[in-house]
Amino acid sequence: MGFRTRQIHAGIEPDPTTGSILTPIYQSTTFVQPSVDAYLSKGYSYSRSGNPTVRVLETKLADLEHGTDCATFGTGMSAVHATMLACLNAGEHAIVSDVAYGGTYRLCTKVLSRFNIDFTFADTSKPKEVASCVRENTSLFLTETPANPTMKCSDIAAISDIAAKSNAVHAVDNTFLTPYYQRPLELGADLSIHSTTKYMDGHNATVGGAVISKTDELAEKIRFIQNSTGSIMSPQVAWLTLQGIKTLSVRMDAQSANAMAIAKFLENHPKVEQVRYPGLPSHPEHELSGKQASGYGAMLWFEVKGGLAAGKTLMDNIDIWSLAENLGSVESLITHPVTMTHADVEEAERQRVGIIDGLVRLSVGLEDTEDLINALEQALAKA
Ligand SMILES: *Cc1c(COP(=O)(O)O)cnc(C)c1O
């Protein structure tokens, strides 16, 4: 069945006792067993190890990504963390996109590096550079594409090949495009990671994460870490996320159409220095994006002429667009990564990977295109 049918129906049955069309919120710590011998005969024992509401969301996400199984988490960061704990031992090495979510970079450099795990931050848009970073002890590749916030794109199939030849796992952070536009497991990756906080929820209501596995073996490793570290999603959050996902494709299409119109508007504006959106032919990986994904998404960045000072004036004086972190919601958001989402990345590293001081990130929402463009036009006039 098609994506739009599955985003609504996959994993969901009417509640067997009442017929409720929406999955009930099973807000319960424990599940009473019929007898000692029939332990787990209904599938659940304790909500850290599994919860029926959460399980419905996991079944749906595995279906949408064409994976075998999914585990959900309290945040996107705990999904990234569980992936690393499942795939890396002390003394091993991981190759990570040199532009990635700021929290992913911090987790590698400030937390996991303390446990004798080595990280190389590579330009994953260049498969040759990735291949040259492989060591004998490389056991994980983590690619983020498109990357936050530079919008650099990486060839998932090419990096999956390199990872397979190195007997390593390739995990892709698929938060920006979601399985509606991009399915890493079909392109050869082993794991697809999400911050469900973003497009899956889509309404700025919850934080959550997910890891979808290609094989049962990987799914079991992730699940084991999840149960051991207690890193789970709550049934309330799973329920809200389930409601959000039902309109995922509709929101993605409308928000991406808005983003394309805004990218074109900005590219033609005399006060704009540069724009980076995968849907524009000026984007370095425009062709690759069109090949491995069926849409360009709703994230982009631009630089105002006059750099940081002009950008700050614009961000402080814009209507409709909220100056806030987060992305992927129906509300349009404007962010300054250098002071907000990527403040923990050292200045030299930011410069090296192209997170320039004047970079203004847009998460394009679902409002009227004209209103969003008018608001930008007025703010540009003040900048
Ligand atoms: C937001 C984000 C994360 C982290 O997710 P949280 O839910 O905020 O913990 C990871 N990767 C990407 C690409 C993100 O945008």
Task: Walk me through what this model shows.
The chain has 383 residues and is an alpha/beta fold. It folds into two domains: 3-245, Aspartate Aminotransferase, domain 2 (3-Layer(aba) Sandwich), CATH 3.40.640.10; 248-382, Aspartate Aminotransferase, domain 1 (Alpha-Beta Complex), CATH 3.90.1150. Helix content is 38%, strand content 15%. The protein has 14 helices and twelve strands. The protein has helices at 3-9, 52-65, 76-87, 102-111, 127-132, 156-165, 178-181, 216-229, 235-245, 248-267, 286-292, 307-316, 347-353, 369-382, and strands at residues 69-73, 93-97, 118-122, 138-144, 169-173, 191-195, 209-213, 272-276, 299-304, 322-323, 333-335, 359-363. The strands form two sheets. Strands 1-7-6-5-4-2-3 form a seven-stranded mixed beta sheet, sandwiched between helices. The protein has a five-stranded mixed beta sheet with strand order 8-9-12-11-10. α4 (102-111) links the parallel β2 and β3. It is globular. The N and C termini lie far apart (49 Å). 50% of the residues are buried. The model has no long low-confidence stretch (mean pLDDT 97). The structure holds pyridoxal-5'-phosphate.
